[in-house]
Protein: NADP-dependent oxidoreductase domain-containing protein
Organism: Companilactobacillus versmoldensis DSM 14857 = KCTC 3814
Amino acid sequence: MKEITFNHRKSSVIGMGTWRIGEGDLLKSQREMEIIRYGLNHGVNVIDTAEMYGDGKSEALIGKAIKGFDRDKFQIISKFYPNHATPKLIKQSLENSLKRLQTDYLDSYLLHWRGNTPLAETVQGLEEVKKEGLIKSWGVSNFNLADLKELAEVPDGQNCQINEDLYNLTSRGVEYSILPYQKEHQMYFVGYSPFGSDKNEFLSLKDDVGQVAAQKHISIFELLLAWVIRNNNVLSIPKTSDIAHFQSNLHATEIEFSKDELELLDKIYPKPTKETTLDII
């Protein structure tokens, strides 16, 4: 398993996405808990969730799945709604998330996307819960370059540690300015949905991509995930539905690309040459 530095700690290069888990019947929930435990037992030490996911059901299932594991050995990221972005509501949302997750703290707490609350108020609330020890760091999600620059101008805005945006082979907008900006400002980047939407729309990728995968004797999913983490500067958050898929994700962390392969993928899905509107799922 490749490791990177993330949130000031050694981390697996992939985490566990948890959108839509905890919303099924008992059997489905049991399988989902088994997958989380499998990941923790095989070196994947970041879990990404949100109060939005299943209206808290994702967090509740994670809370059950992590029982018996050493909490200091893995990180939990959760996110709060934009309409909960005032200091008072941040505290309430966080306390509810901690209760569902059955933990005393979050490793990072993110504003899920921008809303109407002034960023200064949101940062104030996040700094307050950080001082209380309820979170170790805070960040944002679905922020573009203008958002990040605005955030940096408010009091304590420079304390933002993480920005999480969509990043995959066909959604490369972050490469133009977001990734360079975050590197310059020592802000960690999380790329969500390396396979596209949860409806697997990436199964209709251009044929040339499938040919690259076939030549490397890997699956399309393995190629997509390996490509996102190719530079060891991104924490990617794939979601997985079964153990076999999880094993495929683990294999992807060991895949390398040749210069020719990367150039071919760049021709199929070119990297951005100008600022573009970021894709969001």
Q: What stands out?
A: The two ends are 28 Å apart (CA to CA).
